[in-house]
Amino acid sequence: xxxxxxxxxxxxxxxxxxxxxxxxxxxVFACYSxxxxxxxxxxxxxxxxxxxxxxxxxxxxxxxxxWVLTAPGADALPSGANLLCEAVDELLRGxxxxxxxxxxxxxRQHPGDPRHRELSRADKYSRLRWSERRRSRAYWHSLLIxxxxxxxxxxxxxxxxxxxxxxxxxxxKWFARMGAASVTWIYIVDVDEAVGRAAPxxxxxxxxxxxxxxxxxxxxxxxxxxxxxxxxxxxxxxxxVPDLExxxxxxxxxxxxxxxRLAMADSRYAAAQYAAKLALVLGEGARPPRRRKxxxxxxxxxxx
Length: 304
What we know:
Layout: E1 9-17, H1 32-37, H2 40-59, E2 67-70, H3 80-92, E3 103-104, H4 130-142, E4 154-158, E5 161-162, H5 166-178, E6 182-191, H6 193-198, H7 202-207, H8 214-221, H9 230-237, H10 241-265, H11 275-281
Parallel strand pairs: 1-6, 2-3, 2-4, 4-6, 5-6
Helix pairs in contact: 2-3, 4-5, 8-10, 10-11
């Protein structure tokens, strides 16, 4: 196979980690945990901070007129990065001249196979070692649906964090295969990859830097404008049975119904190990639930 040409690339971030330990009390992490779960105010907070980074990247190449804005691939439910990309897109409208304003293209992916080992640890990625992350990303990137609209375009890839470079390596190859002209990586947090590969658990520590109580999680799930993420569903399904029962009681019937709808939409949690917790969410006791085919949720990843 002929090697793909190297893509010109650059990185812009709000916060760079070059050594350990990381000060998790730093204000940059104040809204991070809730952003990952889909909290509207937290997403808006970081999006407003990322917009100047995108504008700076565009200004650095004044002759380009073919910018596209995108984020990691998604199936039915968005990730925090998908929500950030949407919010950045909305904030950019009217701020840039029409001829240089980026067009958003959402990367879609096929549902995962519930029998595959990667679905059995879908909620554990931030705790995986470097070698495990490479295998995990190889699987998830194999599910990405080819998008010819990237060909010849300057890509701005919005994401929340880079720790080991496993995702960036995979997406770099995918964009090269799609024929993209260049990639600009935009992050809230960019960890020096040597540091991240030596301590990949740092990602989980950042994700949980502002842990939520069961009451806090219920409040987030019931809050105005929340866009529940795949990670949020994983967090719910990783709760102990008593904590999950308490959460469901706090949500009330309306909140439980919405959680049921979202949990059934996400193919990442179709693996057998989640069946008992999912059955509890569905009100089916310990019986394994009958799953329906995941479908995109209204507004979660609409193509522009």
